[in-house]
Amino acid sequence: MSRSDVLVDADWAEAHIGAPGVVIVEVDEDTSAYDKGHIPTAIKLDWKKDLQDPVRRDFVDKTGFEALLSERGIANDDTVLLYGGNNNWFAAYAYWYFRLYGHDKTLLLDGGRKKWELDSRELSTDVPDRPKTSYVAKDQDSSLRALRDEVIAAIGKRNLVDVRSPDEYTGRLLAPAHLPQEQAQRGGHIPTAKNVPWSKAANEDGTFRSDDELTQLYQSEAGLDFGKDTIAYCRIGERSAHTWFVLHELLDQPNVKNYDGSWTEYGSLVGVPIEIGDGR
Amino acid sequence: MSADGCGAPAGGVSVSAATGTQAVVEGRVVHAGAPVATGYARLLGTGDEFVAEVPLGDDGGFRFFAAPGSWTLRVLAPGGLRAERSVEADYGHVTKVDVSL
Fold it and tell me: Which CATH number fits domain A144-266: 3.40.250.10, 3.40.30.10, 3.90.1640.30, 3.30.70.100?
C-alpha cells in the first residue's frame, strides 16, 4: 500500500460523485451531521448501531457485516470511499474494519467531512436508494487487531503507541476534553507506550501530514523502532484506527495492529501494570 | 450522546450531562451578527498541543470538559475565518467564551 492507493482528496471525491462502482459512505458516532447534509450520493454508517454488537463488546460478526453491506447496497467489487467527522476517526475505524473483513477496494477521503465543509463544497440532504446486494465477507484478518493478552505480552517488547492526548496519557484526563470526565477506570497508560497523539498526524483541516513529516514524527521524534511490530491504542479504538491507517497504510509498516479494547478495557483490568505521568 | 464513544457532537455534549466537578469551557461563535453553524472549535493545551475539537452547533455553540488551568481556544470556519482566545478553566465553573469572527 501507499498513499495514492488508499487516500483521495476532495477533488477526486467530487469527480466521483455518482460514479458507477464507487460508494461514498459517511461514518460517524453521531449521524445527525449526515442527516443535516452529506456529500451527494453518500450513504451513512452508524459507528455504534451498525458496526458494534448490540450485546457483547465486540464488532458485528462476519454474518452481520455481510447483512449490513448487502442491505446498504455495497457489492464486493465496489470501491468504498469513507469519510466522516471528528477528523476522520470513525471513518478510519470503518476503513480498518472493512479491511478486517477483507474489502480491498477501500479508500479514505483526506480531511473528511471537516475539509469538505471548510472548502464550502456541496452538501445534500437527499438519501440515495441503493439496490440490495449479496455481499460476502472474508474471515476476520487477525493480523490487524490486537486483543488484551497480546497487548500485555507486548509490554517492553513491541512498539506500543498511545495516541490519546498528553493529558489522557499522563492520567490528567480520562476522556477527550469534549466529553464529561467521569469514568469508572484508572488513569494513565500502558507501561513502555510512547505517546504520539493522533492529532500530530493531521493538519488543522483534518488532512494527513506528508509521508516525510509522518516518518519524522514516529521514527525520529517518538523513537518508534520501525523494525519492530506495533500496537496502537487510544480509549475505544477509533483514534488509534487513525494512527493504524497512518502507520500501516500510508507509511506501509507491515505489522501494525489496532487494540480496539484500548484504555476503557486496559484501564479497567485488575492486576495489570499502569504507568502515570509523562512516561519519560 | 453518551460517553460510551469518543465522538464530538455538534455544539458539544449537553451541560446537563456534567456535574459540578467538571471544568467546563463553552461559548458561541458569531460572524456579522449571525451564529456560525458550520465551523470547528479546538481546545489547545500547553505549547498549542491539540486537546479536543467539536463542530459548532446550529447556534454556533461549543462546549469542552477540561481540567483546571490555562487553555487556548481556536475557532475555524469556512472562508478562512479563524480566531483564538486564551481561557482559564476550573472545576465547578463554566467559563464562557464568546467569539466574533
Answer: 3.40.250.10
Closest to B5 (Cβ–Cβ): which among A119, A120, A236?
A236
- pTM of the complete model: 0.91
How many residues in total does chain B contain? 101
The residue type of A150 is: E
- Answer whether A87 sits within 8 Å of B53, measured CB to CB: yes
Instruction: Determine whether A234 is an active site residue.
Output: yes
ipTM reported for the complex, 2 dp: 0.81
Q: Do residues B65 and B21 lie in contact, with contact meaning Cβ atoms separated by under 8 Å?
A: no
Mind listing the pLDDT tens digit for each residue in A80-106?
A: 999 999 899 999 999 999 999 999 999
Closest chain B residue by Cα to residue A234:
B6
Smallest CA–CA separation between A186 and chain B, in Å? Answer: 16
Measured between beta carbons, which residues in chain A are less than 8 angstroms from residue B26?
none
Taking the domains of chain A in order of start, what are their residue ranges? 3-140, 144-266
What single string gives the DSSP state of each residue in B29-95? EEETTEE--S-EEEEE-GGG-EEEEEE--TTSEEEEEE-SEEEEEEEEEGGGEEEEEEEEE-TTEEE
Would the CB atoms of A197 and B10 count as touching at under 8 Å?
no
Under 8 Å CB-to-CB from A109, ≥6 apart: which residues?
A7, A8, A9, A10, A13, A81, A82, A83, A88, A91, A115, A116
Strand partners, B82: B76
pLDDT, one tens digit per residue, over A109-165 is 999 999 999 999 999 999 999 999 999 999 999 999 999 999 999 999 999 999 998
Q: Is A54 on the interface with B (CB under 8 A)?
A: no
Based on the number of CB atoms within 10 Å of its own CB, is A46 exposed (0-12), middle (13-18) or buried (19 or more)? middle
Which residues from A are below 8 Å from B65, CB to CB? Answer: 175, 177-181
Q: How confident is the model at residue B21 (pLDDT cuts 50, 70, 90)?
A: confident
Q: Determine the Cα–Cα distance for residues A105 and A230; give it in Å rounded to an integer.
A: 24
Look up residue A163 and give its three cell numbers.
495516541
CATH of domain A3-140: 3.40.250.10
Closest CA in chain A for residue B3: A179
* A230, A218 Cβ separation under 8 angstroms: no
